[in-house]
Design a protein that fits this description.
The protein contains twelve helices and ten strands. By secondary structure, it is mainly α. The chain folds into three domains: about 100 residues, no CATH class; about 60 residues, no CATH class; about 80 residues, 2-Layer Sandwich (Double Stranded RNA Binding Domain). The strands form four sheets. It has a three-stranded antiparallel β-sheet with strand order 1-2-3, with helices on one face. Strands 4-5-6 form a three-stranded antiparallel β-sheet, with no helix packed on it. A two-stranded antiparallel ribbon has the order 7-8.
């Protein structure tokens, strides 16, 4: 693509004219105004939905809601198109059909974008066979249960997740439409939990077994407490009266020099100061 004014060349990817328009705006502002004016005059279809008192008028009135909208410099009608798109989507759809049916506009960026949009939408995603677009572009309705979802920036991940959780048969059909095999579909059905990889039964048993005496405990935490209290040799809790030491604070708290012995053996009648010693004696 070459500029007729200064002979500068540009690359055009898939027919895009953005680089050429940027060049006009930066290097030839007068030509850009003339281009915008010509594009506005050629685009007669937009005036089906707007009216103005004269060709020189800088404001246009919407025929649907009587809103007055200012035109851009050079008679650019992009503000009018944006008003239709945001406030009257049905009229905007009619406008696009009129644009396609009208003769091509040389150099019209709007026409080029519209043609590319039609080509892009020719291959429809398989997910839209199960969901329906609403008047709001961000919301889509499930055809099976009529639940409404929001999709930001054309992200359909939550739609696929809904099919997977609540419509298994439709999810399998959707995956087949996307080209996945039966084995791959079964693999996708497995929900993978986050976190460390679960240990095997042998590894879990080894983690609960004391390495010193091979005693097995219900949890790894209990095994660590046993290892510290029995095999470490540490007895940090000492009685101030008799000097007896204990590995655990619970044992130290149960230790007493009280002369009262309220716990009576049911077999021989011997009394004890602590309940658990009486229980061991009875056994």
């Amino acid at each position: 693509m070459r500029c007729r004014e200064c002979n500068q060349t540009f690359k055009s990817v898939n027919g895009s004219t953005s680089s050429a328009l940027r060049h006009l705006r930066q290097k030839h502002p007068e030509l850009e105004k003339a281009f915008n004016s010509a594009a506005g005059q050629t685009d007669r279809s937009i005036w089906t939905f707007f009216c103005r008192e004269s060709e020189a008028s800088e404001d246009a009135t919407c025929a649907r809601c009587d809103t007055s909208i200012a035109l851009k410099d050079g008679g650019d009608v992009s503000n009018l198109v944006m008003h239709l798109e945001s406030e009257h989507p049905e009229e905007h759809a009619r406008y696009e059909k009129l644009k396609l049916s009208s003769p091509g506009q040389p150099g019209s960026l709007r026409k080029v974008k519209l043609m590319h949009r039609v080509k892009k939408n020719e291959k429809k995603s398989a997910i839209w066979f199960y969901f329906e677009r609403t008047s709001n572009r961000m919301e889509h309705t499930c055809k099976a249960c009529l639940k409404v979802f929001q999709c930001k920036k054309k992200n359909s991940a939550n739609l696929i997740r809904h099919l997977k959780q609540f419509h298994t048969a439709l999810y399998e059909r959707f995956m087949k439409d996307c080209g996945y095999t039966a084995e791959e579909i079964d693999a996708f059905k497995v929900t993978r939990k986050r976190g460390p990889k679960p240990k095997s039964e042998e590894e879990a048993l080894q983690a609960r077994t004391c390495p010193q005496c091979s005693k097995v405990y219900s949890t790894k935490k209990n095994m660590e407490l046993h290892l510290e209290a029995v095999h470490s040799g540490k007895r940090p809790f000492a009685c101030d009266e008799c000097g007896m030491t204990f590995a655990r604070k619970e044992s130290y708290n149960r230790h007493t020099h009280n002369s009262r012995k309220p716990f009576l053996c049911s077999v021989c009648g011997k009394t004890f100061a602590r309940r658990h010693i009486r229980d061991v004696h009875e056994k």
